[in-house]
Amino acid sequence: xxxxxxxxxxxxxxxxxxxxxxxxQGYDVTALFMINWKDSSVTLSGDCSWEEDIILAQLVAxxxxxxxxxxxxxxxxxxxVVEYMFSEYxxxxxxxxxxxxxxxxxxxVFHEAARKFGADYIATGHYARTEKxxxxxxxxxxxxxGTDSNKDQSYFLCQLSQExxxxxxxxxxxxDKPEVRRIAAKLELASAHKKDSQGICFVxxxxxxxxxxxxxxxxxxxxxxxxxxxPVLLDICRQFDELDKSMPERVCGEFDFSKMEGTxxxxxxxxxxxxxxxxKGLNIGGKLKPLFVLGTDVEKNIVYVGQGHxxxxxxxxxxxxxxxxxxxxxxxxxxxxxxxxxxxxxxxYRQELQDATLMMRENGLYILFDQLQRGVAAGxxxxxxxxxxxxxxxxxx
Length: 397
What we know:
With 397 residues, the protein is α/β, with parallel strands linked by helices. It has helices spanning 13-24, 50-64, 74-90, 97-116, 162-165, 177-187, 208-212, 231-241; strands at residues 4-8, 28-35, 68-72, 121-123, 128-135, 138-145, 168-169, 221-226, 262-268, 291-297, 302-307, 315-322, 326-328, 340-346, 354-361, 364-374, 381-386, 389-395.
């Protein structure tokens, strides 16, 4: 008897080829299109709306010869992803909506809808892989990086659980992007030449301040420039080289720029619109080097900046994840307080994996990097890997 697979078909080339591959492998395939965002007023011109995407999905499903179902999950998306974004930015943190979207929508709401259609498996067009492994504690599912290192999307899946991964298929996880495009073109799929989606998951490319102004009102404040030779800053940076591993908290917090000497460089429309490492949107000229955001203080409505991408205020030796924010994809590998483990980690999509050490303490997890990391932002997700397996993740404090 054929196993039934429900695949998320977005109208993009990746999910289209994934659907075709599943049918070729002999599965009983049904496509599911999810409507998650309907407000096109916040997207930049040229971005495809869901109405265009669903037409592409219908054409692809018809070409492959599979049924297409539609689920409207706009309310859940707004509650779980968009409201979370507003809340985090209001606190001066930088959320990653794509990670949340996968955890709350693509592998939760989608999972539930698939069960109603009697699915044995669910599938998506992510560039990632899974592998079953038998351990002393039973069978587990490993989440592995996609074969195409340039398109690997395992980071976006770093908040998934064993339950969510148990019956998931990633048909293109061991194929590279050019091959996916070639297959789509050969099959003459309507999505073959569709550009990859950009911006916020299911929303599209937006002007972030404009998007956030739906709930977060503009509030003029000062932009304060911190000199790269500020003595307080340099003293903190020296601690990076003199680190005593028994006190990782010394180098895993945010810089307190309020204790440093600074000069007023201009004004901004609201500190909650900015994030660490940001360059665009400051609209301040006349400097020898480009200005980058070093940090924000939403309570005082101050944005701290520094000149040049090599400004020491942009670098961190490590980061901290609070105890209640630690997520182990592999609970059987969870560290206990006092334990340490070498790993590789990343703090953003497409960043090359960085050598690091996990240090578990009673209050949470410290990640100390072998090399200084640029643009570590509170609210982002850090994910850690053992070889090419994503083992866990957490929200940076």
